[in-house]
Amino acid sequence: MKLFSYAAPQNFYPLAGRLWPWLALLATVLALAGLWVGFMVAPSDAQQGQAYRIIYIHVPVSWIAMVIYLAMAFWSVLGLVFNTRLSGLMTRALAPTGALLAFLSLWTGALWGKPMWGTYWVWDARLTSMLILLFLYLGYIALTSAIEDPRRSDRAGALVALVGAVNVPIIYFSVKWWNTLHQGASVSLTQSPRMASVMLTGMLLMSLAIWLYAVAIALWRVRSLMLVRESHAAWVQQLPEVQAHRALRGVA
Amino acid sequence: MHPHTFRAAAGSHALPSPGQAMLGLLRRDLRLALRRKSEWLGAVFFFVLVAALFPLAIGPEPATLRLIGPGVLWVAALLASMLSLSRLFEADHQDGSLEQMALSAAPLSWLVSAKVAAHWLIAGLPLVLLSPLLGLQYGLSPQALAMLALTLLIGTPVLSLLGAIGAALTLGVRGGGVLQSLLLLPLYVPVLVFGAGAVDAQLRGLGAQAHVSVLLALLLAAAAFSPWACAAALRLALE
User: Fold this and answer.
1) pLDDT tens-digit profile of B207-231?
2) Of B228, B225, B201, B227, residue with least CA distance to B213
3) I need a surface site. Which of A5, B126, B144, B171 has the fewest CB within 10 A?
4) Distance (Å, rounded) from C-alpha B155 to C-alpha B151?
């Protein structure tokens, strides 16, 4: 099947190179639109005033931080089952973005919590589980960068990502029963949203933008990882950008 | 050993069944541990010392100590159990017996369960037995002491089971000890929440049955999946 041929790095590298600039452009456009809707069009909140506007960053960033962990688990399963080289690289390319977004979620949450709850940090279920998600990302990054053999590193990382993915719901419910202060979810799939549609539009635009950003940056990063991992392969040596770089450095 | 001589040796005796192999491995690990007492006694002393440090840092107010007691003792037990994890596979990896286990007729995940059981008997059970004594220092009531020992009895095997995955993944990796704690501490959160939460609920008179049930569920899930993940991680380390 055509799709599986892209599991080989030499086929995926040019595809990722063609895709990521468009995705990044689309992400920028959507982010500008989302920010315009969020900051210019949407009214201020009846109870929370202007400070609520941080949700246009906070909520999308938190969603995508969780989605990226699922994506890592997905690539890990593919890697363990089909033994494809691309899967480990994709998991590894996603992890730093996931960690960054989890950190941003905590950071923007703290900035929002100060005016709303009167404190930067509370040991609430959602805050705590996002913090633990950040630790899971950091653990994955630390383990994969500590193991030098690429094959073992990929597979050990896949195991960690899967064990973490199994644990994420357990951790979430354990801290939920432990303590809950965070407001209930404003948007859910089972109920009609309890927020004005213009606010929802802004938030969804931003979510889409951040999702596209995550995909674009992961594709960009996976290209670099492929070049490092496959630097001895003939297809890398024949790449025009590699040859241009070598000519520039004066290496024949 | 040459493969042919190995096969000949195996042919002359009946191979041990997986159950026998597990039992043999358990006995061997326990015997080795009893001969090197400093290893597991170190973790036990660590538990006692950490539990003694907290009152020194926080102050001897009985009301405060009673409040923090369950949490402190649980965290101390968790750290003590993690302290001895790095040796779980290390010696076997170095002298090559781990490879023999991977090659043996018994499934590696069964043998791993035997090793984890040995680790718990050596590093987990002493903590369970000591915990009521340390709980007394924090002024816990008899019911709370019993609950503390019970939750540790259920919870420390989960810690050993999850910890074995971390130990297997970081086997032979540079800076493995720190890495192992970075990997494991997030995974220990549910056990800690429900373990310490049960004692806390008991202290407040709310009843701890729900917490204990969840801990038991965690134990069953960990016992079912951890040896399998652990065996996969060990095979990676042996490649």
Assistant:
1) 788 889 999 999 999 999 999 999 9
2) B201
3) A5
4) 6
Of A147, A160, A170, the CB nearest to B183: A160
How much is the ipTM here? Answer: 0.81
Closest approach of chain A CAs to the CA of B193, in angstroms?
A: 7
Condensed to tens digits (0 to 9), the pLDDT of residues A88-141 reads 999 999 999 999 999 999 999 888 888 877 888 877 777 888 899 999 999 999
* Alpha-carbon gap, residue A60 to A67, rounded angstroms: 10
Token pair recorded at residue B170: 């970081």
A164 touches chain B (CB under 8 A): yes
A174 touches chain B (CB under 8 A): yes
